[in-house]
Structure formats: C-alpha cells, structure tokens
C-alpha cells in the first residue's frame, strides 16, 4: 500500500491550527484539521497520515492520552506541541509515543525543518510500519545474517535479534517486534555500529538530519534516553544485565559483546 502525503493536525486553538496547516501545506502536505483528541484519533485512523501534530492541553482527552491511543494502531510521526516547557512534560510526551516535542510559541521554519529531517528516513516502499508490519508473512527468510552485518535479504543480527532495513522489520525468537519509527532508526544505527559507541548527540543528530551541523539540544539528548528506554522495554532488555544494548556511562550506547562460542 502506498502512502499519501497527508498530515493530521490535532489542535484546539483555531489560529494555531491554521498556522500549522499553512506550514504543512507549504511543505507539500494535504492537511486534515481537527480540534480535539477524539476527532484526531478518528482522523489518523481514517487517513493514515505520514505526520501528525498534536497539542497537549485540549478539552476531553489530553495530548498524552491521545498519543497513546494513536500509537495503539498507527506509526505516524507524532510531533507534540505545547506551552509547557518543563522537562517532565517532554519526557511524558515521548513516553506516550511522540517522536518529537516542540514548545509554543514555535518557529514555523524550525517545525518544518524537523519534519523534513524525520522524512529523510522514509519507510521502505512507503508501507506502514508498526501494526501493519505485523500483517506481513512471518516465515523465516533465507537464513540468519552474520552478527551486526548485512546478510541475505538485508537482515542484520545480533544475539538472535534481527533487523531488516529494506522491510523495516525487527524479529526476535520468530516473532515480530513492533517499534515506532524512531525506535527502529535507533536500533538500526546501533546494529550498524557494532561495538563502536554512539553518543546521545550522534544518535539525536542521526534522527534529525544527515547534516552534522544540525544543532542538538540537551532536550534532544534526553529524548534519546527515553526512546532507548522504550526500545529496551519492548525488547525485554535490562540495563543492569543487557543482552543487546549496553550503556557506556557518560558516553553513550553500543551493542553488547557477541556471545562466546
């Protein structure tokens, strides 16, 4: 299934809603505008957008709950917008499933740059990730790849955890693991790096853009910590005794050593 260039805006302030529509339409999106969380969830389900912007403070269900409901069935890029600047709110938004978190008042050019940076890592073939990935046939491919190297079918493997960049798919013990796009991209970067340590700044930059000059803030680095924690939770990996992802204190992250024998 191909994906239309659609963006859903979930925002209760009419002026901001129209500003977001203008920014997104200038970036080439067809926009669907909604004013509350319930309508926004319905719009995402109906239109399968590439990008969804989501206000935090809304009547009815707030942005955090809306994000959780959307994440239950969609892998749309979720960008939360809010007047709240406290770190705890940022972390709560990311834990609810957001890919990015922008505080109001925001600069339209910055928002557009963040969206375009995310889209530089499109899904292979434009097929939906997440829940739709689980609908793909789950039979074995032509064989496991050598650990942390690309093999038949573009699969990479480390200690039984396997990832295909071409299919945007992660498998563990013959089961598909459902990840957000950001979690997938982080795992892909770590599998590609092997035992080389990747700093939080590097990982944040990879998610933003291929341009190394892109500014990475402390909030971006904290976001990497949250995304890595969510990724580990889904994999059943534990920082105290990691099977796949090892924290190098004060530096960043890398793969664990290969199993002996």
From TrEMBL:
Q: Which residues bind DNA?
A: 153-257
Q: Which Gene3D superfamilies match?
A: 3.40.50.2300, 6.10.250.690, Winged helix-like DNA-binding domain superfamily/Winged helix DNA-binding domain
Ligase keyword on record: no
Q: Which domain of life is it from?
A: Bacteria
Output the PROSITE patterns linked to this UniProt entry: OMPR_PHOB (PS51755), RESPONSE_REGULATORY (PS50110)
Ranges for domain Response regulatory come to: 6-119
Residues that the record marks as modified (4-aspartylphosphate) are: 55
Q: Enumerate the UniProt keywords alphabetically.
A: DNA-binding, Phosphoprotein, Transcription, Transcription regulation
Q: Where is this region: Disordered?
A: 121-160
Any GO MF annotation of the entry: DNA binding
Q: Could you tell me which Pfam families the record lists for this protein?
A: Response_reg, Trans_reg_C
Q: Which InterPro entries match?
A: CheY-like_superfamily (IPR011006), OmpR/PhoB-type_DNA-bd (IPR001867), Sig_transdc_resp-reg_C-effctor (IPR016032), Sig_transdc_resp-reg_receiver (IPR001789), WalR-like (IPR039420), WH-like_DNA-bd_sf (IPR036388)
Tell me the ranges covered by the OmpR/PhoB-type domain, including all copies: 153-257
Feature: compositional bias, Low complexity: 125-142
The cross-references to PANTHER family, in alphabetical order and at most eight, read: DNA-BINDING DUAL TRANSCRIPTIONAL REGULATOR OMPR, REGULATOR OF RPOS
Protein name in UniProt: DNA-binding response regulator
Instruction: Supply the source organism for this entry.
Output: Microterricola pindariensis
């Amino acid at each position: 299934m191909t994906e239309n260039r659609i963006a859903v805006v979930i925002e209760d302030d009419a002026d901001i809603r129209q500003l977001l529509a203008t920014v997104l339409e200038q970036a080439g999106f067809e926009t669907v505008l909604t004013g509350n969380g319930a309508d926004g969830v319905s719009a995402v389900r109906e239109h399968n957008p590439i990008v969804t912007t989501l206000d935090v403070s809304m009547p009815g269900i707030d942005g955090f709950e809306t994000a959780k409901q959307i994440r239950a069935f969609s892998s749309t890029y979720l960008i939360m917008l809010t007047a709240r600047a406290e770190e705890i709110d940022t972390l709560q938004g990311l834990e609810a499933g957001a890919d990015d978190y922008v505080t109001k008042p925001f600069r339209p050019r910055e928002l557009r740059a963040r969206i375009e940076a995310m889209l530089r890592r499109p899904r292979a073939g434009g097929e939906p990730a997440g829940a739709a990935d689980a609908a793909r046939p789950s039979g074995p491919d032509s064989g496991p790849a050598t650990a942390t190297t690309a093999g038949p079918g573009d699969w990479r493997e480390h200690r039984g955890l396997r990832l295909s960049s071409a299919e945007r798919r992660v498998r563990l013990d013959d089961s598909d693991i459902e990840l957000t796009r950001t979690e997938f991209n982080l795992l892909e970067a770590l599998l590609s790096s092997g035992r080389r340590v990747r700093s939080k700044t590097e990982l944040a930059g990879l998610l933003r853009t291929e341009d190394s000059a892109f500014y990475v803030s402390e909030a971006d680095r904290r976001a990497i910590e949250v995304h890595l924690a969510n990724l580990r939770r889904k994999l059943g990996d534990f920082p105290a005794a990691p099977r796949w992802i090892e924290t190098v204190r004060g530096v960043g992250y890398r793969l664990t050593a290969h199993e002996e024998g």
